Write a sequence for this structure.
């Protein structure tokens, strides 16, 4: 299994970490009727070698001339780093530090386009290519998919079963209706929301509009952390794109 490093600031990075280690106090979406559907099923705590929390970008200078002052003096040797929510100048200083320690991959999820604008992405791409580091900027994180050109990141997706949601749905006949009998989460959104959507689908009648309504309500209730601000690159909020991804995964199973 791959060794991971998280470098993060803010709630989203912590949410992904807690989902990966399957923290039993993490998902409270079902409240009192929680049946612990995901707890005990997996844990990747042994693969997370470090989770380094950096200061909130709002508490740092707008321009940082000496990023090494804020980055940790020691970065552990890992296969791949996930960096999210950190100051742009610190993010730009990260690839050389990773390369020094032998890291071969960097994933920078984009839940808010203002955190990693296109100009910064371009600079990071140039750095990573020069340093022979695989990279991905999934917008949002749950859009991260397998790619032949990205073998290390594809391995990350396969081993930790997070990225673009994938579910396996079994239905059954109930009188004249077809209803959802079971939903297996094959790959979850990194925030863990796919498990909640799967839970809410059980027992639902297989009708397109009804299923779409259930998925949308569950996705918003979890809740998704992507921004509702309109992203100029994709022409809509990143949150909407996240909603379309889980809806597509469900509809491919039920209506294809």
């Amino acid at each position: 299994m791959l060794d991971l490093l998280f470098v993060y600031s803010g709630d989203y990075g912590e949410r992904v970490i807690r989902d990966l280690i399957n923290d039993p106090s993490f998902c409270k979406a079902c409240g009192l009727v929680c049946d612990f559907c995901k707890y005990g099923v997996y844990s990747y705590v042994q693969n997370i070698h470090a989770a380094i929390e950096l200061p909130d970008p709002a508490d740092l200078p707008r321009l940082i001339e000496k990023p090494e002052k804020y980055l940790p003096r020691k970065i552990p040797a890992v296969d791949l780093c996930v960096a999210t929510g950190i100051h742009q100048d610190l993010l730009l200083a990260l690839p050389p530090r990773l390369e020094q320690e032998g890291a071969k991959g960097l994933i920078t999820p984009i839940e808010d386009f203002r955190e990693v604008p296109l100009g910064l992405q371009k600079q990071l791409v140039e750095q990573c290519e020069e340093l022979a580091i695989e990279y991905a900027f999934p917008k949002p994180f749950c859009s991260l998919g397998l790619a032949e050109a990205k073998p290390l990141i594809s391995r990350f997706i396969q081993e930790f079963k997070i990225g673009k949601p994938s579910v396996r749905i079994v239905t059954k006949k109930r009188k004249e209706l077809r209803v959802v009998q079971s939903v297996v989460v094959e790959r979850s959104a990194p925030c863990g929301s796919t498990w909640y959507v799967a839970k809410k689908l059980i027992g639902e009648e297989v009708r397109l509009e009804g299923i779409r309504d259930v998925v949308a309500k569950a996705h918003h209730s979890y809740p998704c952390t992507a921004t509702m601000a309109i992203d100029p690159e994709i022409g809509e909020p990143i949150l909407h794109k996240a909603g379309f991804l889980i809806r597509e995964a469900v509809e491919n199973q039920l209506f294809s």
Summary: The chain has a mean pLDDT of 95. The chain has seven helices and nine strands. Residues 4-160 form a domain with the Rossmann fold fold (CATH 3.40.50).
